[in-house]
Amino acid sequence: MSSSQPFHLSSPITGPSRKKSRFTYRHLQLLSQSSTSCPLRVIALIDYDAFYAQCEMVRLGVAETQPLAVQQWQGLIAINYPARAFGLSRHVTVTDAKTKCPELVVQHVATWREGDDRWAYRDDAARHIQTDKVSLDPYRLESRKTLALLKEILPAPPVQKVERASIDEVFLDLSAQIHGVLLQRYPELRYAPYDDPTERLPLPPSTALDWHADALVDLDSAETEDDDPDWDDVVMNIGAEIVRGVRQSLYEKLKYTCSAGIARNKMMAKLGAGYRKPNQQTIVRNRAVQHFLSGFKFTKIRNLGGKLGDHVVETFGTEEITDLLATPVEQLKAKLGDDTGTWLYGIIRGEDNSEVSSRTQIKSMLSAKSFRPSINTTEQANKWLRIFVADIYSRLVEEGVTENKRRPKTITLHHRQGAQTRSKQLPIPQGRKIDETILFELAKTLLGQIIVDGRAWPCANLSLSVGGFEDGVSGNKGIDMFLLKGDEARAAMEPPPRSNTATPNPEDTRPEKRRKLVEATSIARFFSRGDSGEEPEEEPIDDFADEPSAQDEVDTHEDQTHKSPDLQQQDIAAYFCQSCQKSIAETDRAEHEDWHFARELQAQESPAVKSPANSRPPGQISTKPKRGGIGTRGRGSKPEKGQSRLAFG
Ligand code: CTP
Ligand code: CA
Ligand code: CA
């Protein structure tokens, strides 16, 4: 009968008696759904090499070998790899950098200047720290361009799952796409014997996995390259192939190089991406996770770079993952609280169930300036408010606010004096077009409120933000339909299925429901086209390790939303089912997918499929899968890393 033994990563069935995969048909199904609990899931993180520097190289059309650095006031914020070869880093001053590398091209970031209605590259920017404000718009725009291309290259949603993690980082959940490739390449995986999803899969077939030039991190001590590969190795290999193709296209079409990490979750993918740079990809196989992790301090892990990490270091007197591994979960929970303790226990074991979330809408926009020296008058402050408003307004226009696609509900002014920060907030009046005048009036009112409270001067930092974005009510179709291509556009125009039945029903043409869903889809599509995303402000602070740079004090701000992806609003109300070529309400997604699953199962009942001769690889006659069709294995000489035998026939 079927094996219903639960799946345990920690207890692989090894040795000569191992005839089947550790993974089941159910796991394959979870893979197709990009389920976060799927033990075969494959996540990639793409991180552009020296991103701002590459943006400038592309913009200026300089040779790839030309050393180049990006300057912000007197500091350097990005250094390309040719310049790094001269020992340059973010901590080097502009003068030192030029001494160390005389042929260095130094490009100052674009700035906003009072009176101008858009940012510009200016030769004299570095001397205008008092009157200019940094604009990262050029990099934001490039970031969007790369994201749009990524979305074009990858299969359409819902197979495609792409999350912009920062200005130069994107997570891809490749699970569903890989599932498709797997079934194509290994038809023996298509149907569970006896329709039993708890049945273990046959082991992977005999071709050696070709990792090309990819970096593979070393395996855990209990594993060897001689150990039999399982499907988790195969899916990683397919993931690597996809990412290699994606990187190639990014380079061919936009001339950007990036590094990538490919692993079972976001956290490991992120760590993997940093392993080999530039222009390389690293695979962290499941069998290598623990060994790889042991090389890091836990303060390098996502969410442990900041205060929480410091607290853990203080509490347990160590920064080493290896030391923490010895701490029982009860102790972690007792010292850090149940949730954090449990989370940390998993994280240091390489477990991370967080989803790659396709929601990429902007939640807020912020424009800020730190003053050195501090400013002392309303007049000075107003000049900056005007610049903030121009900055935010231009981004609102890009976000479609003038077409009433979305609009922010609130405007907030933050004020800093010494270590003390104060904020004032006002609602943005509805029913009236948002323009620069109204934003400026609101900003001045907020400043007035701070002044009335007293202690407004001297002021060390001001920042203005708008937030609480809501979708506009109508009129979206015309504009964003052109963003949909061919079938997608046709399908989006078609009536969506009833949302309260498991079976898609194309006959449902109830007008109000239809309108709502079609609009929702259009909106979702618009925001998934790559033209939006959370906007890390001024400086995309890394989610994973808070490493302050020399630039931190000046013009460095992070969007509030950046750190709390879980709190993101769920604005995308529909998704596009590829099989049906229809938009389906997001709330009905699970049900709808179940329906497809049920239909797939039903398909297995069909005679052609039922016949073992058709569904099994040649050479296998049993009705239960053995290592069928997979031949005998032989031991060769010591294999290369990742090139282990996989030897069959
Ligand atoms: N950045 C910054 N200040 C920091 C960190 C990053 O201004 N403290 C900017 C950099 O200019 C950079 C971009 O954010 O180009 C992305 O940051 P990151 O990926 O950390 O560095 P890269 O410059 O892209 O270099 P790498 O090749 O190591 O990824
Ligand atoms: Ca980068
Ligand atoms: Ca980065």
TrEMBL record:
<dbReference type="InterPro" id="IPR017961">
    <property type="entry name" value="DNA_pol_Y-fam_little_finger"/>
</dbReference>
<protein>
    <recommendedName>
        <fullName>DNA polymerase eta</fullName>
    </recommendedName>
</protein>
<keyword id="KW-0862">Zinc</keyword>
<dbReference type="InterPro" id="IPR001126">
    <property type="entry name" value="UmuC"/>
</dbReference>
<dbReference type="GO" id="GO:0005657">
    <property type="term" value="C:replication fork"/>
</dbReference>
<dbReference type="GO" id="GO:0006281">
    <property type="term" value="P:DNA repair"/>
</dbReference>
<keyword id="KW-0808">Transferase</keyword>
<dbReference type="InterPro" id="IPR052230">
    <property type="entry name" value="DNA_polymerase_eta"/>
</dbReference>
<dbReference type="GO" id="GO:0042276">
    <property type="term" value="P:error-prone translesion synthesis"/>
</dbReference>
<dbReference type="InterPro" id="IPR043128">
    <property type="entry name" value="Rev_trsase/Diguanyl_cyclase"/>
</dbReference>
<keyword id="KW-0227">DNA damage</keyword>
<keyword id="KW-0234">DNA repair</keyword>
<dbReference type="GO" id="GO:0070987">
    <property type="term" value="P:error-free translesion synthesis"/>
</dbReference>
<feature type="domain" description="UBZ3-type">
    <location>
        <begin position="570"/>
        <end position="604"/>
    </location>
</feature>
<dbReference type="GO" id="GO:0003684">
    <property type="term" value="F:damaged DNA binding"/>
</dbReference>
<dbReference type="GO" id="GO:0005634">
    <property type="term" value="C:nucleus"/>
</dbReference>
<dbReference type="GO" id="GO:0009314">
    <property type="term" value="P:response to radiation"/>
</dbReference>
<keyword id="KW-0479">Metal-binding</keyword>
<dbReference type="GO" id="GO:0008270">
    <property type="term" value="F:zinc ion binding"/>
</dbReference>
<feature type="domain" description="UmuC">
    <location>
        <begin position="43"/>
        <end position="305"/>
    </location>
</feature>
<dbReference type="GO" id="GO:0035861">
    <property type="term" value="C:site of double-strand break"/>
</dbReference>
<dbReference type="Pfam" id="PF21704">
    <property type="entry name" value="POLH-Rev1_HhH"/>
</dbReference>
<dbReference type="InterPro" id="IPR043502">
    <property type="entry name" value="DNA/RNA_pol_sf"/>
</dbReference>
<dbReference type="InterPro" id="IPR041298">
    <property type="entry name" value="UBZ3"/>
</dbReference>
<feature type="region of interest" description="Disordered">
    <location>
        <begin position="490"/>
        <end position="567"/>
    </location>
</feature>
<dbReference type="GO" id="GO:0003887">
    <property type="term" value="F:DNA-directed DNA polymerase activity"/>
</dbReference>
<dbReference type="Pfam" id="PF00817">
    <property type="entry name" value="IMS"/>
</dbReference>
<feature type="compositionally biased region" description="Basic and acidic residues">
    <location>
        <begin position="590"/>
        <end position="599"/>
    </location>
</feature>
<feature type="region of interest" description="Disordered">
    <location>
        <begin position="590"/>
        <end position="649"/>
    </location>
</feature>
<dbReference type="InterPro" id="IPR036775">
    <property type="entry name" value="DNA_pol_Y-fam_lit_finger_sf"/>
</dbReference>
<feature type="compositionally biased region" description="Acidic residues">
    <location>
        <begin position="533"/>
        <end position="556"/>
    </location>
</feature>
<keyword id="KW-0539">Nucleus</keyword>
<dbReference type="GO" id="GO:0007064">
    <property type="term" value="P:mitotic sister chromatid cohesion"/>
</dbReference>
<dbReference type="Pfam" id="PF18439">
    <property type="entry name" value="zf_UBZ"/>
</dbReference>
<keyword id="KW-0863">Zinc-finger</keyword>
<dbReference type="Pfam" id="PF11799">
    <property type="entry name" value="IMS_C"/>
</dbReference>
